[in-house]
Amino acid sequence: MVEVKLHDIGEGMTEAEVLHFFVKPGDTVTADEPLVEVQTDKMTAEIPSPGAGTVGKIMVELGETIKVGTTVLEIELAGAPSKDEKDHKIEKSEQVNKQETHTFHIPKRSDRVLAAPYTRKIARDNGVDIDLVEGTGPGGRILDEDVMSYMSGETSKQALAVADATTEKELEEVQSEEVTAPSSLQTIPFKGRRKQIAKKMTHSLHTIAHCTQFEEVDVTNAMEWRSQCKEQGESFSIAAFYIKAVSVALKDYPIFNATLNEQEEVIELKDTHNIGLAVDTEDGLIVPVLRNVESKSITEIHREMKVLTEKALSNQLTMADISGGTFTISNVGPLKGSTGATPIINHPETGLLALHKTKKRPAVVNDEIVIRSMMNLSFTFDHRVADGGTAVAFSNRLVQLMEHPNTLMLELV
């Protein structure tokens, strides 16, 4: 009997929530067939079978949050010796004295089934057999919208059946019960990604000496420059321009693209600018990583940023997409209504920059009051690693690059 365990897949993972079992005791499975689906704070993944065999005892409950190293279930592999054979061998040799145990890495999701884990979750939560849903995506892939459409059709059928079978008196009784039913306290489960985010934020806040600096930047020239580029056929989001400006500023002040190694008592300066992009999803905040920004053009940053954001919103990020960040940017401007914040650093990084909404307001230019497009910045840094003066210098350099696109162009290689 082989034990299948939850393995640490990196990035500080310590536990995961059991979302769904694909098998039950007694089922026959093949090698690499998914056994269970779990949710960490950053991604949804499947644990595969180590080989062909028969599912034995399931050791955890659906919805349970389990620690790394926990045995999820047992499998009797095909061709493995039976219990009687094992007992016979044990009597002959004292070397075999314990059960064989294997720990398996959680691989990234594959296209084995033509539906993403989140799509399957929507189907499960609503009692839909996903095998009955017709996929409209590439290669027949089942999309979230396909499940919703199927649910809409089934709901209509169920409503007609209920209407035919329910008398007017029964409807009145149901309505009466609804009116007199006592109200109850609404609760939201504090587990899964929400719980993991809470732990990570608490750890960061209690470990790092947070200090937040506020700055405002006139992005009028940047907005006009972007409009000119669009007229010439070069379309990109203004956020891509801001990300490139941050990378150039980090080149001048590498102390903010660093990690404090307390055990070795050194500050490790990173060679590459792997910028984390905070994305607000239905399941909570997640930070995919845009790699090697220092060597990418603004249009390349725009394209890759769009792909990562879409993957985050559809819960399709892999471990490679969310690991290795060196600095994080939280662009809350598109959400509207934010002019300032005190962001919590994505441990173990040293800095996090929040970009707030752009708003036209009066400003003084050459001793004259004019209307400009202004945006506020909130820059949080680790005060153990850098001082306030260095943070101000970094912010000043960043503002210079954001306010004068031509200056940024001079810095590109």
From TrEMBL:
Domain Peripheral subunit-binding (PSBD): 114-151
InterPro entries named among the record's database cross-references: 2-oxoacid_DH_actylTfrase (IPR001078), 2-oxoacid_DH_E2_comp (IPR050743), Biotin_lipoyl (IPR000089), CAT-like_dom_sf (IPR023213), E3-bd_dom_sf (IPR036625), PSBD (IPR004167), Single_hybrid_motif (IPR011053)
Composition skew (Basic and acidic residues), residue ranges: 82-100
Keywords: Acyltransferase, Lipoyl, Transferase
GO MF annotation, one: acetyltransferase activity
Domain Lipoyl-binding: residue ranges: 1-76
One Pfam match: E3_binding
Keyword Chaperone part of the UniProt annotation: no
PANTHER family: DIHYDROLIPOAMIDE ACETYLTRANSFERASE COMPONENT OF PYRUVATE DEHYDROGENASE COMPLEX (PTHR43178), LIPOAMIDE ACYLTRANSFERASE COMPONENT OF BRANCHED-CHAIN ALPHA-KETO ACID DEHYDROGENASE COMPLEX, MITOCHONDRIAL (PTHR43178:SF5)
Family affiliation: Belongs to the 2-oxoacid dehydrogenase family.
Protein name as annotated: Dihydrolipoamide acetyltransferase component of pyruvate dehydrogenase complex
